[in-house]
Amino acid sequence: MHATAGDRILVHGRTVGSGEQHGEIVEVRGEDGNPPFLVRFSDGHESLMYPGPDCEVLGPDEER
Q: Model pTM?
């Protein structure tokens, strides 16, 4: 999974009833756009993450 700073990330809920988390990739710390990504989520917290199969990275012009 490749990304650049400013891309959006969606983390889909893993269980029934849990919603998606939305965030913005603030920094890409891996080489050539690879994880880990520093992500600022919509609730304001930041996390360093290695996205799994339950995640989507969307460019600044992409709609979901």
A: 0.85
